[in-house]
Specification:
Elements (H helix, E strand, L loop, with lengths): L1 E4 L4 H12 L5 E4 L7 H11 L12 H6 L11 H10 L8 E3 L5 E3 L3 H9 L2
Helix pairs in contact: 1-5
Length: 120
């Protein structure tokens, strides 16, 4: 199991605390320092069963600068969104937990983190 975190994020810290409390084995990826490639973003999106706009933090300054709220959310625009996430990792929703069964969850709630634990 791997968890993509920003250590300054309270949701990330809560997810780590829960994983630790449950004795889970996981690897931490500080995705702002170890930025995921476009290919890694595509892979995690497939595991999540989501589109790039579904995991984009649209209230971030970079999102506003890019005008993301006006971007199309369709197949033709998908790669543009993925490129933006790779170039501006702060836009990626967090934490993302990849489970051992090949799936992933956005672990913003205790329920979502427990869901990931149940998939190990």
């Amino acid at each position: 199991m791997e968890i993509w975190i920003n250590p300054a994020c309270s949701k990330c810290r809560s997810a780590i605390d829960l994983l630790d409390a449950e004795g889970a084995s996981y690897t931490v990826r500080r995705y702002l320092e170890d930025v995921p490639s476009e290919e890694e973003i595509r892979a995690v999106l497939e595991r999540l069963g989501l589109e790039p706009w579904d995991i984009t933090r649209t209230q971030e300054a970079a999102a506003k600068e890019l005008g993301l709220k006006d971007w199309a959310r369709d197949d033709a625009s998908r790669e543009r969104w993925i490129t933006a996430l790779a170039q501006h990792p702060k836009l990626i929703q967090r934490p993302i937990i990849t489970a051992e069964d090949g799936t992933a969850v956005v672990g913003r709630t205790e329920e979502a983190v427990r869901d990931a634990l149940g998939r190990s």
